[in-house]
């Protein structure tokens, strides 16, 4: 029984990552309908497990479930994106301030190892993994700051922000550097300031970093389209 449950959970995790990857690569655009029958066939899952998958995606704000209509790739608008980043800034600046006061050599090592993984994903051209790791870097700062209530709140905000970045981020910033390259460099600068306990500098870097992320968003993207999910996930 335990082995069977583990197998189903593995299938659901794999399906989740494939849907996330399709959103990041823009093969699934905001508002695209996710038909249960097509997902059952694409992922070899029962209808009940597909519904579990959709519930998980909805919990992380990747999918919107509309009664009597179905499941659709989430379509956060301009106002929602701005509100998410405004809230994110308030929480993350407090987290950075807290960690910069007490960052240990071990904390720095943990952060640096994570950014190495970001660099590798960027070098490999794996944009889906890069965006996920970038969000996890910010969560890692929250975890190391040891502010559990704020961390729980941040977890939801980062999930929503990562979707917005995946859907709307331009591939290059205004100065021509790739978004991934710039993010990795800014994360390194942030680690240096945090580890040196330069509190105000760390806060300024994080504030500028979040502003740059928001400025990279194109909030007037192409809208939903009819797609063949079986081809997308073939």
Describe the overall structure.
By secondary structure, the protein is mostly helical. It folds into 2 domains: 2-76 and 221-232, Orthogonal Bundle (Arc Repressor Mutant, subunit A); 78-215, GntR ligand-binding domain-like (Four Helix Bundle (Hemerythrin (Met), subunit A), Up-down Bundle). 71% of the residues lie in helices and 4% in strands. The chain has 10 helices and 3 strands, in the order H-E-H-H-E-E-H-H-H-H-H-H-H. The protein has helices at residues 2-24, 36-43, 47-59, 78-102, 105-123, 127-145, 148-168, 179-195, 199-215, 229-232; strands at 33-34, 63-66, 70-73. Strands 1-3-2 form a 3-stranded antiparallel sheet. Helix 5 (105-123) runs antiparallel to helix 6 and helix 6 (127-145) runs antiparallel to helix 7. It is elongated, with a radius of gyration of 19 Å. The chain starts with a helix and ends with a helix.
């Amino acid at each position: 029984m335990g082995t069977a449950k583990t197998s189903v959970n593995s299938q659901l995790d794999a399906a989740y990552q494939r849907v996330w990857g399709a959103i990041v690569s823009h093969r699934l655009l905001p508002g695209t309908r996710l038909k249960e029958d097509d997902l059952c066939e694409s992922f070899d899952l029962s209808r009940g497990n597909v519904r579990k998958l959709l519930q998980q995606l909805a919990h992380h704000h990747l999918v919107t479930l509309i009664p009597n209509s179905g499941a659709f790739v989430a379509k956060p608008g301009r106002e929602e994106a701005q509100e998410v980043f405004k809230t994110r800034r308030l929480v993350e600046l407090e987290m950075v301030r807290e960690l910069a006061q007490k960052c240990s050599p071990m904390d720095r090592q943990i952060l640096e190892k994570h950014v190495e993984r970001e660099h590798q994903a960027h070098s490999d051209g794996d944009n889906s993994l890069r965006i996920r790791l970038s969000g996890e870097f910010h969560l890692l700062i929250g975890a190391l700051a040891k502010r559990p209530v704020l961390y729980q709140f941040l977890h939801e905000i980062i999930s929503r922000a990562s979707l917005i970045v995946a859907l709307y981020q331009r591939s290059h910033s205004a100065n021509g550097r790739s978004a991934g390259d710039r993010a990795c460099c800014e994360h390194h600068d942030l680690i240096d300031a945090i580890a040196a306990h330069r509190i105000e500098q760390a806060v300024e870097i994080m504030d500028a970093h979040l502003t740059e992320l928001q400025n990279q968003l194109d909030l007037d993207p192409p809208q939903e389209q009819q797609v063949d999910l079986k081809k997308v996930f073939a």
